[in-house]
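Checklist before submission:
- one chain only
- standard amino acids only
- sequence pasted in full

Submission:
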Amino acid sequence: MAYDGEMLTLAQDIQQRIARVKTMEAEHIDASRDKQRRNAITGNAVRRGRMAKAVALGTHEQWQWWRLVALYGRRCCKCGSKARIAKDHIRPVSRGGSDGLDNLQPLCQGCNGRKHDRWEDYRWDNGEWVGVLALSWVVGE
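Returned file contents:
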C-alpha cells in the first residue's frame, strides 16, 4: 500500500508542477500582451504628434487631394496602377515632412508600403516634373 501512496504523491507533485508552469506561461503571455498594448499606445501617440507637426508645416483640403489624384489620371505615380490609391508623403512625416500638397503624391498601397520611410519623389510626367503650374490648378488658383 505504501507504494500506491508514493505514486499518488508523485502524480500530485507532477500535476502541481504542470499547473505552476501553465500559470507562469499565462502570466508571461499577459505581460507580453500588456507590453504590446503599451507599445501600440506609445506608437500611436508618437504618430499623432508627428502628424500634428506636419499639419503645422502645411496642410490641404480633401478636395485638393482628389484634384491631385485626378491630375495623375487616378493612377499610382510609380507603377501606373489604378488599384487602391493612397496618400504618400514624399518626405515622410517621420522625417519632418509636411502634410501640404507639395509633399503629397498618389501611390498605390503596394508601392507606398515598399517605399516605407524613404524620401522618394515619383511625380514625373513624360520626363518632366509636374510642378508649380499643376499644383496651382489643384489648389484652385
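Reviewer check: Helices lie at 2-57, 62-71, 109-115, 132-139.
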